[in-house]
Amino acid sequence: LTYLNWRGLEIVGILSIFLAIFSLLPFIIMWLIGLPQMDFSKCLETKPVEDVDWGLLLNTLFWNLNYFDTASSLASEVEDPTHSFPIALKIAVIVIGGMYLLSAIVGTGVTPDGEEWDDSYYSTVGEIIGGSWLKGWIVCAVALSSIGMFEAQLSSNAYLILGMTQRG
User: Fold this and answer.
1) What is the mean pLDDT of residues 49-60?
2) The pTM is what?
3) Residue 75 and residue 89 in contact, taking contact as beta carbons nearer than 8 Å
4) Which residues, 6+ apart, have CB-to-CB distance to 109 below 8 Å?
5) Nearest Cα residue to 26 out of 128, 119, 130
């Protein structure tokens, strides 16, 4: 995997686009197949405030913001970053927020009991909605998404080290 970063950001960028499409598609398909199967009344059910695990919620929200801080180290490779970065970050926040929200809404609407949710439950939701092929695709998408995050972090860290060595 490090070989790709050694080859340059262009190949990492192309790989990242492929991985993003491959990782997002099973969830979009899950929405399309799952929406007609949903029980929308489940989406309106709430827990008492004292039953919410606020630490877990905040930890998850902060975890979802990972890697936004590393974009600045790659700014030298972007043409007009003062124009491109704000647009890209806005799009990223909308896509990420929408993906999580819509996936959670569909998952909540098709599953029998919300108490069963755990770390790998989206694959179970995919199986409920589309069968074993969708479950397998979601599992593969999660694994390849981790590779994409690794590549992005490696690129960013390489540019940080380059910058430090150039400054002395």
Assistant:
1) 85
2) 0.78
3) no
4) 34, 37, 38, 39, 40, 42, 43
5) 130
